[in-house]
Amino acid sequence: MDRIKKYFRKAIEITPLWAKISLCLGVFSALMYLIFILSPTFSDFFNRYPAAFLRALLAKITGVFPFSVAETAIFMIPIILTAVIIKIVKAAKGPLRETFKMFVSMLAVLALFFSSFSLLFASGYRGTTLDKKLGLERTAVSSSDLDSTARILWGELKALIPELKYAPSGSSLMPHSFFEMNDELQSAYGKASKKYDFLPSFKSKVKPIILSEPMTYTHISGIYTFFTGESNVNTNFPDYTLPYTAAHELAHQRGIAREDEANFVAFLVCIESDDAYIRYSGYMNLFEYVLSALYSADSKAYYALINEVDNALIGEIAAYNAFFEKYRDNVVAAVRGSMNDNYLQSQGQSAGSRSYGMVVDLAVAYYKTR
């Protein structure tokens, strides 16, 4: 026993201070994660206040840079891995003390990564669901519900079409630069935060991804990186998807972790905008989700609605399908989809990747109260 104590004291003595702090933070974060799982009420509080403050602070820090810090870190992975391997080899050839320090340092880095996830984002998966926050009754959805909701959305889109411009390909044209779009969304989030008290109010920047075209092969249109606090958007996708995708990633930045809920918050925020194109993006993206569900539930009702829809929207959908054909089937997308599915299920979303489309349930419940 004395020998064990001696080794333990020695291990603590040679462990770098930063690693001790990181490992202690990891233990604390693990305990917090357990509390999140056990208490939705505490998760709501932590997500809305302490975590919201930390996410906003991190977003402000990384927002100083005009590029995505997270994407830059990914660029540097080969260099970092090479340096780590060299360090491991040197440590393995040296005294046991150096090998131990190397092992503890690697463990501390993993602990830091876990802590950033647990303290910044994990509580969003474990709190009260969005339907309850909005006072909605989420029930089984019938084909008639889908048809009614789709027609309401079509009515909203019909009113916006005269204000838009379309390219010869059929795609609508966003009348803003990427950064002007961000300003419009920040204003929309400001209005939405006054309406929905679960949304923190702060301004941030959406970051365009430099390698957007290669990233499209993964079918990723946007990503929120919790360890840098950045909302990143793939700018290779058609214009009408960009505001909605950006609003989705900004929702994650504001603690809306579940994918279907981030989709619906993106819609709610977009339709709060004073800008016609931002509203169009919100309505159009939700319309497509509902339309797809209607097709699966009742193809006759789907085609009846399609026959009434303006050619501008048919052209938009056709142009998107033509664009996406190049990226539709590939190994990278299949692997990424499987990884994302496993991650979502590990965070309590039993539907996995299918949870993105569950926004339809929220849409139907929302419009039943309107």
In this structure, how is the largest beta sheet organized? 3 strands, mixed
Fraction of helical residues: 55-70%
The coarse overall form would be elongated
Poorly predicted regions are 351-356
* Strand order in the sheet with the most strands: 1-3-2
Rg (CA only) = 23 Å
Total domain units? 2
SSE order? HHHHHHHHHHEHEEHHHHHHH
Beta-strand share of residues: under 5%
- Structural class per helix/strand content? mainly alpha
What is the tally of helical segments? 18
Mean pLDDT: 90
In whole angstroms, the N-to-C terminal distance is 70 Å
How many distinct beta strands?
3
Explain what the structure shows.
The protein folds into 2 domains: 2-126, no CATH class; 130-368, no CATH class. The protein has 370 residues and is mainly α. Helix 6 packs antiparallel against helix 7, helix 9 (143-160) runs antiparallel to helix 14 and helix 9 crosses helix 18. The chain has helices spanning 2-14, 17-38, 40-48, 50-62, 69-75, 77-93, 96-126, 130-133, 143-160, 178-195, 212-215, 242-253, 259-270, 276-297, 299-306, 311-324, 331-346, 359-368, and strands at residues 206-208, 222-225, 230-233. It has 18 helices and 3 strands. Helix content is 68%, strand content 3%. The longest helix is centred in the first third of the chain and has 31 residues, at 96-126. The radius of gyration is 23 Å and the shape is elongated. Strand 2 and strand 3 (230-233) form a beta hairpin. It starts with a helix and ends with a helix. Strands 1-3-2 form a 3-stranded mixed sheet.
